[in-house]
Design a protein that fits this description.
The protein has 1 helix and no strands. By secondary structure, the chain is mainly α. The radius of gyration is 15 Å and the shape is rod-shaped. The relative contact order is 0.10.
Length: 34
């Protein structure tokens, strides 16, 4: 495994985590507004 593919994998993991976190935050905000 090269350094580059490890970096891409790390960014992908961070991206998925950020997306998941923001989805939770948005849904909480949406429930709060209702």
């Amino acid at each position: 495994m090269t350094i580059q593919s490890q970096t891409i994998d790390l960014f992908y993991t961070m991206y998925k985590f950020a997306l998941h976190t923001s989805l939770i935050a948005i849904s909480k905000q949406f429930n709060y507004l209702k």
